[in-house]
Amino acid sequence: MKYTAAGKGSFLKNFKNGLMNKLGRLTGIFSSDIGIDLGTANTLVYVRGKGIVLAEPSVVAVDSVTGEVLAVGHKAKAMLGKTPRKIHAVRPMKDGVIADFEIAEG
Predict the structure, then answer these.
(1) Which three-class secondary structure state does DSSP give residue 34?
(2) How far apart are CA 94 and CA 99, in angstroms?
(3) Quick one: pLDDT at residue 55?
(4) pLDDT digits (tens, 9 = 90+) for 47-97
């Protein structure tokens, strides 16, 4: 099952872009000492001297027609099991690795 339209880029790229948009509000606090944990259940961002500055569920909602990321984190988790057919809310990680290489490859 593919989550991207032809020519729209890979699922993993869309997930990364959605995550980076979510992190955009934190731009001013980033230094060279950050850590990002892309976990199976949660994604955490740690900044030295500030602690964990972002803790969100590792879930992404994708429009399967356009490949557009519609939501990430808490908003996407709220969509699990409640989306129309063209929107898929999925957990891209399983047991600490990419859950489906075909989806990630796009």
Answers:
(1) strand
(2) 5
(3) 95
(4) 888 899 999 998 888 888 888 888 889 999 998 888 888 998 888 778 877
Give Cβ neighbours of residue 12 (< 8 Å, ≥ 6 apart): 92, 98, 103, 104, 105, 106
Buried b (16+ CB within 10 A) or exposed e, 66-87: ebbbbbbbebbbebeeebeeeb
HSE of 98 in the Cβ direction (CA atoms, 13 Å)?
12
Confidence label for 105 from pLDDT (cuts 50, 70 and 90): very low
The dihedrals phi and psi of 44, each to the nearest 5 degrees, come to -120, 145
Could you tell me the domains of the chain? 11-24+59-105 (3.30.420.40)
Question: Following CA atoms 75, 76, 82, 83 in sequence, which dihedral angle do they give, to the nearest 10 degrees?
Answer: 120
**8 pLDDT above the threshold of 60:** no
